[in-house]
Amino acid sequence: MPAPLNRVATTPELPSTADVVVIGGGIVGVFAAYYLTRRGLKVALVEKGLIGAEQSSRNWGWCRQQNRDARELPMSTKSLDLWERFATETGEDTGFRRCGLFYLSNSDDELSGWARWRDFARSVGVTTHMLSSAEATERGRATGASWKGGVFSPTDGIADPASAAPAVARAILKLGGTVHQSCAARGIDIEGGRLSGVVTEHGTIRTKIAIFAGGAWASSFCRQLGIRFPQASVRSSILSVSPGASGLPDALHTSAVSVTRRGDGGYTLAISGGGRVDLTPQQFRYAPQFLPMFVRRWRSLALGGLEGFRSGHETLARWRLDAPTPMERMRILDPKVDQRTIRLTHSRALELLPALRNTNVSAVWAGYVDSTPDGVPGIGEITTVPGFILAAGFSGHGFGIGPGAGHLIADIATGDTPIVDPRPYHPERFQRSAWGKVADF
Predict the structure, then answer these.
(1) pTM of this prediction?
(2) Which regions of 173-247 does DSSP assign to beta strands (E)?
(3) How many CB atoms neighbour CB 172 within 10 A?
(4) Cα separation of 392 and 164, whole Å?
(5) Buried b (16+ CB within 10 A) or exposed e, 229-257
(6) Which of 73, 81, 232, 359 to pair with 374, CA 20 to 30 A apart?
(7) How many C-beta atoms surround the C-beta of residue 83 within 10 A?
(8) Which pLDDT tens digit goes with each residue over 97-125?
(9) 417 backbone φψ class: left, alpha, beta (φ>0; ψ -120 to 50)
(10) CA–CA separation, 250 vs 260, rounded Å?
(11) What CA–CA distance (Å, rounded) separates 336 from 341?
């Protein structure tokens, strides 16, 4: 694994029955399973590879309200509280802390956009501070440069991508839930017009509720069930450096590069929004629905290669339930790193923060950021398959809002009062155009 990841134990035996089966052991899946298990339900979490091994361990680790789209902001705010509460409830360490997020800019347009978001945030009770040139330059003194301005969101924070999902999985085990790694879900059984079981490579679990939180695999899995879920993935390449730099902010964003302190004292370095689009059959199928997104984001994207075909997560093929699936052939999505992006990211980081010259590159990796046409996740029960709840398309935001999303999914599954309004997230909206609805992020 190029991206650091803590390991978690696997439950030896697959249960024959469960109240709920959660498919996918990323941050959203584990939090959904955790909140369901806390409510006394018998929960089985199945993961084709390792807990947290795909995008949940390959992201920056930011847990933010700052610059969130209005539809995601309520979930972001709830998630910050839930990140804190999780540590108190379980004694498990996700690395979460409210260190604040710090943005610097020399662009008048960018600063104006942040100021508009600040005004909106005030209307919903979220605190963020615009910084004058003098304040931004002083707070950003580690850069050794002068800045026109910036923003600081003091209640936002970071968690450790290497630790978070495994920590939640351990909490599930403590509560009596089961965790099954190297156990791909191949599909579902239906009886009487509703879901009646989840078919895995190791056997079938009888259940009335299944939650699919499989990240970039969601669209191809849904296709097997006759569900049309538009999804497109962007290959993002980032790196980490060793400990050794002092005096740096815990989390800093600029248009050139973003820097985040890791749990081991090193830093993750990345270019925001950048990535390569690897051509796949699914990319072509859903291209018309993603045109509004492309119009907004095309400057930060580049054409990729055939990595998507190799990975198999965006296949249009149908598969059998009694034979290995693409998910078993690709246990962990680990796409090829874009070395040009890595070199550019590293050089920009060294230029921005000279203290990083005292560090060495410790790891490089790539991952697939799965997106929906409007950049907002799809969460909700699929009406054509009662008992099947989809939670995917988190568009690069899933790690930070994982606790809130997991709580909302548990609320939907149990019929409890939802922690936030679920209507903006329901997948049925993808039957309509995304023009004018693409998220600001």
Answers:
(1) 0.96
(2) 178-180, 185-191, 194-200, 203-206, 210-212, 232-241
(3) 28
(4) 18
(5) bbbbbbbbbbbbbbeebeebbbbbbbeeb
(6) 81
(7) 25
(8) 999 999 999 999 999 999 999 999 999 99
(9) beta
(10) 6
(11) 12
